[in-house]
Amino acid sequence: xxxxxxxxxxxxxxxxxxxxxxxxxxxxxxxxxxxxxxxxxxxxxxxxxxxxxxxxxxxxxx
Length: 62
What we know:
InterPro entries: LBP_cg2779-like. The chain is mainly alpha-helical. About 75% of the residues lie in helices and about 0% in strands. The chain is globular and about 25 Å long. The protein starts with a helix and ends with a helix.
């Protein structure tokens, strides 16, 4: 499993655990909801900056 797959699974699990929508995830990470969808569905890989924003958001709400 590559890093992109890990990130998409981390997003899915985080949203389930915290009862969040993609829209809430996008708002909290400062990404567009379209980018969150693309990353989560593995339609495209997150840039290092996007991954950092997503992981910082998830880490700050544990």
